Amino acid sequence: MELDEDLKAFLLESNENLNQIEVDLVALEQETDSADVMNRIYRALHTLKGNCGFLGFEILQSVAHAGENLLSRLRDRHLIITPAITTALLQVVDAIQQILATLETTGTEGDSDYTSLLERLEQLQAGTTVGSELTTPLAVETAEELDDNEPALITSSATSISNRNIRVDVVLLDKLMNLVGELVLCRNQILEYANNQENKSLIDTSQRLNIVTTELQEGIMQTRMQPIRNIWSKFPRVVRDLSLSLDKQVQLEMEGEETELDKTLIEAIADPLTHLVRNCVDHGIEIPSERLLAGKPEVGKLFLRAFHESGYVNIEIADNGKGIDAGQIKIKALQRGLITTEQAARMSEQETLNLIFSPGLSTAEQVTNLSGRGVGMDVVQTNIDRIGGSIDVSSQPGQGTSFKLKIPLTLAIIPTLIVSSGGERYAIPQVSLIELVRLEGDQAKRGVEMVHGAPVYRLRGKLLPLVYLNQELQLDTKQKKSEPDYTLPSALTDMEEATSALQESTDEDEIDVLNILVLQATDKPFGLLVDAINDTQEIVVKPLGKQLKGLSCFAGATIMGDGQVALILDVQGLAQRAHVISDAQEASLLAEGLSQTQTDIERQMLLLFEGPNGRHMALPLDQVTRLEKISSSKVEGTYHKHVIQYREQILPLIYLSSVLANQPESSPPPMTTDETIAMVVVSVDEHNHIGLVVENIIDIVEEQILIKGTASQPEIQYSAVIQNRITELIDVNAIIRAGAPALLQTAS
Amino acid sequence: MADAQQFCTFFLNRLFFGVTVEKVQEIIRYHEMTHVPLAPSEVGGLINLRGQIVTAIDLRQRLAMPKRPNTQAPLNVVVQVGEDTISLLVDAVGDVLDVDPKYFELPPETLTGQIRTLIQGTYKLDDQLLLVLDVDKVADITAN
């Protein structure tokens, strides 16, 4: 059964205390008047009793309380310890242990009766000699009983919480982690070797090795992971204290507290995060009167968010305060001599904001005793840099400031896609990968279009900027020839042949296949063109030497199955590098290409399909997520609804025939014997999709809509002539409203 | 020769170089290297040294010497620089020599260019000069 964290901690601590009490009690019997030991027992039992009261365990508390009373008499020397008393106290320990065991298995104290024990304790406490004489033989008896019970207790506690937890030195965990990393590499090499062998038992063994290694790796990683809550849990207090002392009102919101990251990283980011939180409250959020003047609610908001993305842990700290005044930063930086007037004039807004990370710059009008304390934003950045992370600041004057931290999983073993370009292999973290697009033959030749020198590809109607990996990394074969790799003489000729062959194939303008990796850069996707896509592989990130640290395109390196080193691409770094060029291109495009885009405005990518009763219909392609043909047998019914299981989700279906042709939903629309039905998946919002069931999908066209007619139904936007046919453009939102109104409600 | 110093020696473009043996981890024959795009030209590539990824520095490039002929495979002198392990690509490896400090002399004034900053000094041996490399400075390359 699941125990909550408090209870687990309580059980763990109490068991430790009990063990100590037991040892001490026995020691006390031999050395009757050791005040130290007595005090220790008393304190331990007292703590235990206090915890019981706090958690509301009454039976436990009463037993502990009775034991404590007796102890206090002993401690104050009103009573002298006798074997009878010791036995009674040991029985208290047993009773508590028993209750704790019940608590752990059932979550309740159980219904065992301890009145006789309580009574005996009472008697002993009163010091009635009769009682003690009487109990002496009894005590011996019970002690014997105890002996019988003891093995049972030990076995029952074999799985108890105290036995399931051990303290481990982090250094040992670090070592294990490194070893597992090495093991993963060995595993990869063995798998590669075994796959080329015929020996069945070798193949089987290597498969087993594969599975075991994976599990081991997960287990070891798990031991080191801690939720970010461990740091965040102290923030409510920090924010409260700080806002009180500053006469501000701040509401703290946290999201993604469960996000786990490696222990060493948790420790490394604790101080920087605390500093950022303090900074937001101190410098960001205004005092209530100021906020009211600015037309904002009195209570300022501080928002913390953590999530995994692109192989990084992302942490956002945002406030809705006054924001950072870029002008003021420039002035401050000028005053401190951090920048020259000339530099100041040239600086973009973002560059100016980044100045807050330089040493010796504080934007606070007055330095408070709470913010800062010797650590500036420069220290924050240094600390984040040290663990290979990054920090970005963005700010809207009057709206607030937000800090975005990216903390890498340097210790992690990450799944990657191995690609090759220019004769070398590169690993791309799968987390930044959205999809793979492969164009062949004609498509490959026509797929890439140029926008003023910048290559783009139309991905489902949207332009995807393209980046050629070999160009970005300056891998073109010509350069390779002038700077040949050092190769053994024997291999040299092969190598040269290979490079010249490669060159020929690129020189010829005939491209047969284009491999596009759609990757997620910080804000928008881009396509990366590579020569070949090899396979997926789990790799261990190894840092690059300091000579290569400055290369932002690479996140590290790894050792491949064949023992060769491959570089790991840093998708963000690559995108940034590529954007340097594309920004300029975009700007010049905007300057001169406006007229062209204006004529293009009315051209739309449309999906043409056949609606109910043979009506020609269309829908803008950018609303379409996917086109599917599904078997009608997959459609399942819930109450008045049709749904299918689609990509691990439940996808509600709307039959256009029932919405537009008034065929009742309950009697299944015309699918009866038909095996496949055509479905257009459209997105309602980020999380929700819906399947529109149509009769037939006709085509995807790019059309300039010139003639518009009025709509015949509210679910139709307008009608138009497309490819010489009257075509009705459907209004997806209206159809969802009509077909699945509940979905819109949950979405909003 | 009580306080004699030991040097691991090697050849580059027919010049005789030495590195204190304390810094040298091992010497290995040519190892396949992974080219690092965009890296400074002094970086020859990355090698897999028993699971450790080591940056190889092409000493000819670093010392602004002519390129090694394509037919000649370099050897790796693996050295420790601080906490890093790097490999120095050399033409050929010589013996480990015991050298008496009294033969030491600073590099001649006429030695200029890149090489001067990287050479601590020379030992006047009987038949030739031993140029002592400052490994820390050799490793001090940064990429942008």
Structural notes for this entry:
The complex is a heterodimer of chains A (748) and B (144). Chain A is an alpha+beta fold and 748 residues long. Chain A contains 26 helices and 30 strands. In chain A, helix 2 packs antiparallel against helix 3, helix 4 (83-106) runs antiparallel to helix 5 and helix 12 (263-284) runs antiparallel to helix 17 (377-386). In chain B, a hairpin with a 4-residue loop joins strand 10 (119-124) and strand 11 (129-133). The model of chain B has no long low-confidence stretch (mean pLDDT 86). In chain B, strands 8-1-2-11-10-9 form a 6-stranded mixed beta sheet. Helices cover 10% and strands 47% of the residues of chain B. The longest helix of chain B is centred in the last third of the chain and has 5 residues, at 114-118. Chain A binds chain B through residues 182, 185, 422, 424, 473-475, 483-489, 492, 542, 544-551, 553-554, 557-559, 563-567, and chain B through 30, 32-48, 51-55, 57, 68, 70-71, 73-74, 84, 86, 89, 139, 141-144.
What labels would you give this structure?
heterodimer, A: 748 residues, alpha+beta, Helix Hairpins, Heat Shock Protein 90, 5 domains, 46% helix, 26% strand, B: mainly beta, six-stranded mixed beta sheet, 11 strands, globular
Task: Give a short synopsis of this structure.
Chain A has 748 residues and is of the alpha+beta class. In chain A, 46% of the residues lie in helices and 26% in strands.
CATH fold assignment of the largest domain in chain A: Four Helix Bundle (Hemerythrin (Met), subunit A)
Task: Tell me the radius of gyration of chain A.
Answer: 36 Å
SS field, number of helical segments of chain A = 26
The amount of beta strand of chain B, in percent, is over 45%
- CA(first)-CA(last) distance of chain A: 37 Å
